[in-house]
Amino acid sequence: MASYRGSVKDFVNCNAKQDAELLHKAMKGIGTYEDTILMLLASRSNNQRQEIKVEYKKAHGKDLVSALKSELGGLFETLVVALMTPPISYDASQLHKALKGVGTDDDVLIEILASRTCAQIKDIVKVYKKECGGKLEKDITGDTSGNFQKLLIMLLQRSNDEGVDDNRIEKDAMELIAAGKGKVGTDEEKFINILGNRSHEHLRLVFDAYKKVSGNDIEDSIEGATTGNLENLMLAVVKCAKSVPAYFAESLYRSMRRAGTDDQTLMRIMVSRGETDMLDIRACFKKMYGASLYTTIQEDTTGDYGKALLYLCGGND
Length: 317
Description:
The chain has 20 helices and no strands.
């Protein structure tokens, strides 16, 4: 059994009934005690938050999320609602929002489809149908086009994360080298077929072979050969094949180190990786940027929202 790499764990001796009452008291009366809400929800696992939701409804006859929404506002409210959503439902709702809002938010599609496991994607497809009332594949097809669409659909249908085909490693590497070389326009199809149909394990070996023969990193070739959302998607697939935590460390860094914080991305990653690999993301962040994720969040956010994100981060490195 691999050791647990999340920063958010099950709270020992959690009493959902008691927690529901604490939240009720924090919201009742004059003023809301944001600190109680923040500390309580950030220190419970998602499963425990779902239990609290059930107990709250039993005791007070109303939905806890609606009650929280009526008391809170701004980014803190958005974050709390995200924390109260089961992980697969959260991914499905983020994809739905990305596809059904004004214009398509390609970055969300790229992040979720490139980084989730095949099993998670299967679950997302099911939950999307049930909770968002549509077919994810159909919505993606309706909202995107060209090779970008093609690779997204391949990722949606990819059936395995594991497994290496030794006979294909060399062949795949040579095909990628040939596809990126000296033609007018790159043979994007070749890139897409290999990136969209191989396991992460297999791709890592292909990228090593690619570098050995061509002397280049695969990322450099992609950056030189294609542009826009297709380039971003291909790079995300490559980075996630190499290291999902490093991919998220870079995304977090980019969400904060620019004029104005990209709060939606920051929040989405902190919520969705808290019970997955936040400890690894923190380690990668420190190694890549020489600063701790905790301090970076501290410098970039404020108020209850910032405090809650620090809780999810789980500590300073």
